Amino acid sequence: MPKALFLKTLAIILALASSLTFAADSPASLAPFEGHTDIGTTLHPGSATYDATAKAFTLSAAGENMWLSNDAFHFVWKKISGDVAVNADISFIGQGVNEHRKAVVMVRQSLDADSPYADVALHGSGLTSLQYRDAKSALTHEIQANISAPARIRLLRRGRYATMWLASKGQPFQMAGGSVPVSLDGTFYIGIGICSHDKDVVEKAVFSNVEVTSLPASIAEPKLYSTLETIAIDSTDRRVVYLAPERFEAPNWTRDGASLIFNRKGRLEKIPVAGGTPALIDTGFALHCNNDHGISPDSKTIAISDQTKDEDNSHVYIVPFAGGSPREVTPNGPSYWHGWSPDGKTLAFVGERNGEFDIYSIPFEGGNETRLTTAKGLDDGPDYSPDGQYIYFNSVRTGHMQIWRMKADGSAQEQITHDEFNNWFPHISPDGQWMVFLTYDRSVEGHPEDKNVMLRLMKLSDGKITILTKLFGGQGTINVPSWSPDSTQLAFVSYQLIP
Predict the structure, then answer these.
(1) Does residue 369 form part of some domain?
(2) If you write DSSP's letter for every residue of 226-247 in order, what string do you get?
(3) Would the pTM count as exceeding 0.85?
(4) Residues 294 and 281 sit within 8 Å (Cβ to Cβ)
(5) What one-character DSSP code corresponds to residue 40?
(6) Are residue 45 and residue 151 in the same domain, yes or no?
(7) Strand, coil or helix: 401
(8) Is the pLDDT of residue 143 over 90?
(9) φ and ψ at residue 14, rounded to 5 degrees
(10) Strands 451-459 and 464-473
């Protein structure tokens, strides 16, 4: 081979070698990890180095984003299986070009750009979120934490679900709310990564106190956490409003859009949509309120369902919005409120009479109840359309639970959903364009708590149904109307069982 050709070939080989970042350092220098690589299309090669003295990794990367159906970032990884956790203290280097640059701890099925994954992502702006892609080539979704710029982030994957844990400097990790189902089969990848969120820019971050842990099977009774969340129907992004290590249920969105109301331990509480500390609502003697409650169209009163006076039977009462003494509306029980006519004059509720659960209506001021359904089997969850013409409800009359509607006087009953699931609690958006409902698997009877469920959305103009989100929930998730006044968001409660 001529010398000039040899030198040219050698130069090409060296250039190619210098551009390869996969396993660029020996495994020992990256412990506990096995290698590192760019994922997806990156215009500038990423890098990873380890400072043994500082016990810290420094990662650099370009990459347009970690979002939609494909990712572009630099990933330091090891292969693992089973239940695991990965955590790190993270600090970005420099001011950054894009405030959405991301540093993450992650579990990932493969090194493909469109792989299923879950991560906890710290953004340059301080936004912290649990991101996930639940199937290959699917779109990415996220749950935004209500904590900004934590010093430490942790991702815990146990069984089907991934959860986000955050901590301030020097403080223990606390669960930050929400959980997402991401199926990772067999051996998968766990590690740390960085994305510049600008394909032409390289960003850097330092990951210290990095730990990768295989989680043993727990013999302890799991602890229940409840998370009050909102979800935008256009992006399907979820945001944590409030989290507590106990059960609470059934949010209503106030008519001014500023607050959410939910029930806990037999009482009603109110919290700003932006988050904060919940405040009790005075319901007088009614101290055993269940999850069937809602706000009047004029925002002056709240309907509650309570069984303080009749231990085995719920009755519907009206209390002032600011709190006060209850006024009984339904003398017969058990009765559970579910809907309010747009003119404020009529309540729709579920009542058990002679062993049958049916839909009833009753004047707001009290009076005689009117039975609207007579089919054998359970009818439940009535809610008015915003024009007052229809009442939507769920019924098991076809053999499993489906969504139905009828005119407000009970006539012209017709089935709305026709599928193999069990569908509950339809709620129509204030603009009349959408119906949200809770979906269980066909095998689930009733509407129990602590199940894998979906919130699904139907466009009423064409009947098309899409999945809004998948979650661990059920009873208490979305029993009552919870649309934002502008019809762009919903409030709901998800649950987590943490060993």
Answers:
(1) yes
(2) EEEEEEETTT--EEEEEEESS-
(3) yes
(4) no
(5) S
(6) yes
(7) coil
(8) yes
(9) -65, -40
(10) antiparallel
As to burial, measured by CB atoms within 10 angstroms (0-12 exposed, 13-18 middle, 19+ buried), residue 425 is buried
13 burial level (CB within 10 Å; 0-12, 13-18, 19+): exposed
Cα–Cα–Cα angle for 310, 279, 127, nearest 5°?
Answer: 130
Residue range 327-352: average pLDDT? 98
The distance between the two most distant Cα atoms of the chain, rounded to a whole number of Å, is: 104
Paired tokens of 384: 């008015």
Q: Tell me whether strands 422-428 and 414-415 are parallel, antiparallel or unpaired.
A: unpaired
String of DSSP letters for 45-78: --EEEEETTTTEEEEEE--S-EETTEE-EEEEEE
Query: Per the structure, how many domains does the chain have?
Result: 2
User: Could you identify the residue written with the tokens 């990890």?
Assistant: 33
Length, in residues, of the chain: 499
Phi-psi region of 227 (alpha: psi -120 to 50; beta: other; left: phi over 0): beta
Strand partners, 320: 301
Give how far Cα 403 sits from Cα of 72, 200, 416, 437, Å: 42, 50, 5, 8
Tokens of 241: 């409003």
Answer yes or no: is 204 within a domain.
yes
Burial class (CB in 10 A: 0-12, 13-18, 19+), 307: buried
Together in a domain, 206 and 253: no
Candidates 74, 377, 17, 400; CA nearest to 207 is: 74
What letter represents residue 186's amino acid?
A: G
Burial 179-188 (b: 16+ CB within 10 A, else e): bbbbebeeeb
Q: Burial of 115 by CB count in 10 Å (0-12 exposed, 13-18 middle, 19+ buried)?
A: buried
**Cβ distance 256 to 485 under 8 Å?**
yes
In a domain, 77, yes or no: yes
Could you give phi then psi for residue 339, rounded to 5 degrees? -145, 155
pLDDT in tens, 189-248: 999 999 999 999 999 999 999 999 999 987 789 999 999 999 999 999 999 999 999 999
**DSSP annotation of 28:** G
Pairwise CA distance, residues 278 & 425, whole Å: 25
Cα distances (angstroms) measured from residue 139 to each of 30, 55, 158, 260: 31, 35, 22, 29
Q: Give residue 56's domain range.
A: 21-214
Q: Is residue 339 part of a domain?
A: yes
Beta carbons of 228 and 478 less than 8 angstroms apart: no
